[in-house]
């Protein structure tokens, strides 16, 4: 085995990050993605304010957190891609984003590299497109999902939107729409054919005998006059995570889901490595990528809809679904999951009870609550707020409340088809 200096790999990644982060005019992608993320988070926080009449929260903590964790994910992803030998040289990678966008027109949750990579890989196998490397594309998909799993575990619960949704039991329950985005700076490898007499300097880096784990694709070149050189290629990916937590707290839900996604990614990565050395197995990662991802999503959705909802009305008091950052309720010590027993001396069991009790003393609010909602002892606290200021808490829905948001994930094509069929039947009904 040839000596391998890990500092060379680390230095390559750091240099790529410097290019992507410190030269925004020449390489604006990272900062453009961060701006898009800021707009998405701003929309999410405005939705929370509009739905529950709470004070709008600042978007900057979410944006800064997204950037910080994106850098962590980028370092992990870059290390893994170079370690496994993901090499971007052929046109197949250019199809990933367009195919993902096209799939989103059918259903928004299909805008994922797992589905796009699977479609491209299956098409390459069926039609014999030699310019598309199945193992390289699906290897990229596996590593990006592994990075996503790590980021979900660390921060997927941080930016959650409280929601009222329809449950399969025919009632409205409280829950959290988990939505996180991360800009991921990456340093991957590409192959370049350089003429012997070009005068371009390049440094040879020794590699161990087992590298690469994923066989790089061939590129056409003339060995008599050219040399093939592996060169680092800095680029930026945008990763997003969306889910619905009904039966567990957001942190617990995210960490469970992240472990499942990590397992999926490791299985896919193993299939890619096997197919790299035995091309006859290329169909396995091409099929497992989209089908395994779809099975994981359906299983998670079924678990949430068939489990016992966590945030529902309680006969003992008014359960708190969420508390606004910096709100009077948060300053008074209230947290999501607490049970509010009385306000200003009046028992509260519903949002109507809360509104009535707040009218007795709008500025100084005396509250009795049970931390965590179960066990322990009831505590008393006082919240000070402005006369017309919101208390800043979001209670669970009352049994008769309608759902505020429906998550259907319908794409543009299905929306257009639905509208066309509705208009068609309406016109036919008017005809004698």
UniProtKB/TrEMBL annotation:
Key word DNA-binding present = no
Q: Which InterPro entries match?
A: PDZ, PDZ_6, PDZ_sf
**What would be one Pfam family of this protein?**
PDZ_6
The residues covered by the PDZ domain are: 317-350
Key words of the record: Membrane, Transmembrane, Transmembrane helix
Q: What are the TM regions of this chain, as residue ranges?
A: 20-41, 62-82, 88-106, 113-129, 135-154, 175-194, 228-247, 259-277
Q: What is this protein called?
A: PDZ domain-containing protein
Which species does the entry assign this protein to? Answer: Heliobacterium mobile
Record lineage: Bacteria, Bacillati, Bacillota, Clostridia, Eubacteriales
